[in-house]
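ok so I'm stuck.
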Amino acid sequence: MKVLVIGAAGQLGRDVCRVFQDADLVEADLTGAEVELDLCSPTRVWSLVVDEVRPDIVVNTAAAHNVPECEENAAQAFAVNASGVRDLAKACQEAAARLVHISTDYVFGNGAQRPYVETDLPAPLNVYGASKIAGEYLAAAECREHLIVRTSAIYGHASCRAKGGKNFVELMRHLAATRGTVKVVTDEVVSPTFTLALARQIRLAAEKA
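replied:
not stuck anymore, here's the structure
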């Protein structure tokens, strides 16, 4: 089984690569992986998936997910989270690969008082959520063998680009040391998700879909 992990140098991507170590694994990312890939380059995406790798499974963990930065640069957020996913899905369809696309609970954002279910209607409240639901729809439209995994509040041992190259614990320690007082939200209810546990479930779902 040949597996291509996109966003392989990211916090979730590292653990996805870890659980697929016994496969014929190809790791791709903007930087820090064996293969350089920018999702905003359609020709490079097509070349890697269709001409070079021809994987059985593609796991896309790459995203523009810094929420404030997405608000400031909506075009870039949609380029990565929507247009880039569309181009990847097209390439997966051509290569007969199963696309596992990682999404987020931010596609909802409507203040539900119970856990979300798959049939809840999306209602994104910000650019990040809107760009991610757009990517979901485009992945489903362009690749017949697709699987969308929505997750929430991930944390792990690896660093996170959106947190300045730190994981959650490292970031909190840094803020406490440099600011004295750390302000965090107190009205948000989430299900923190350990990246390694999520990665294991992604593999199970990818192979059973």
